[in-house]
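User: Hey, quick favor. My workstation is busy. Could you predict this chain's structure for me?
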Amino acid sequence: MAKSRGGGGPGSPGGRHHSLAGTRESLAEPGGDELSSLGSDSEVNGGGPEERRVDKFGFIVGSRSAEGPLEEVPLEVLRQRESKWLDMLNNWDKWMAKKHKKIRLRCQKGIPPSLRGRAWQYLSGSKVKLEQNMGKFDELDLLPGDPKWLDVIERDLHRQFPFHEMFVSRGGHGQQDLFRVLKAYTLYRPEEGYCQAQAPIAAVLLMHMPAEQAFWCLVQICEKYLPGYYSEKLEAIQLDGQILFSLLHKVSPVAYKHLSKQKIDPILYMTEWFMCAFSRTLPWSSVLRVWDMFFCEGVKIIFRVGLVLLKHTLGSSDKLKSCQGQYETMERLRALSPKIMQETFLVQEVIELPVTERQIEREHLIQLKKWRETHGELQCKSPPRLHGAKAISEAEPPPHKALEPVPSIIVPPGPAPVPKARKSKEKSRDKAPASSPNGPGAEGNGAPASAPGLLHPQVSPHHQSKESLSSRESEDTYL
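Assistant: No problem, here it is.
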């Protein structure tokens, strides 16, 4: 898949990277004419909106995107999870600093649907990014945009989840918001512009949050989680393809040997998987669970999902009996078995697969060295990727609110009243020799010199940091 340009549509002969043409076309036109023919609500299910039924995720019942029977979480368990997540979100800095492992475990169990959008914003750091750039999205939204990108974005709108109630109508609110988010990104990062794979990513985000929040979440994905994926030359995705293939040698030697024998380049089967974060590959319940873990743990989740799919598709001699040639192998990878994509099975396999950030980074250095030997230096200088919420939080600590003034007791002018019990002591002090002005007697005299200390108490830096943290913790945020 290549980045689209105004001068040529998806898969056009004038596009770049001819070696990726097959993948580019499959991404641009996932259903062939069946999707491009959708133009209004009434064209789906043979009737208008009053006749259309949708599943729990918003997909039209009867479409290939709709989910079959799902494993429902008991209502009581769901409510308990919601309560735990609300506590975490309302005390996010403390949880992220001290209990990150607990956050990871809860993401692996699945974020409650009612809080998923809010949780993604906290995990990705996009909430902090939005607060640091208040009004920026509105500013970009009002700008006209570069015509060379606008035409391409507009042509891609109807291809994004056309059987979802948000995007089924041409010119509907879902497509309008998708256009706004993608246009804003081309203005925010004009050197990158627009890549077709950003559209499904932005569409998934819009299903869970408003346009402004979706925009900043997209920014974090492009800059922190998957830097370089959507740049012009697609160098980062090609490097990650080689990393995936090298990791496959350890995870499933049988699958690795078969793909090597068939001379199938990783870019042919993993481009859409990685660039769209499996949003166009897996059943929707599995997509959401993968994204929950991805936002928490980073790109290693994407690698693990890819490795699990390859292992269970090509990882045994029995499975390879029907994949004797290159064409049969690619067809098998395009039509994955529903069993291995099923939510419970896939998530458990991903959690248990021992592939770490350290392994990925070590392999990245190896593949980068090979790339330089064969291609020279990378043309796109991307920032280093951050592996999940913890790394992003440490790289960009959220700014604490300024400390509110501490209320003080105002002492009226004049001598301070002296308690009766102390009068006799003061009389005896009067008879004694005068003490030093700086001695103990200066403290109990009600001397005006001590008044400024009472009127303007000083706040220590330690007290200030505690006060700031408590005010941050008690903040109730957008739900």
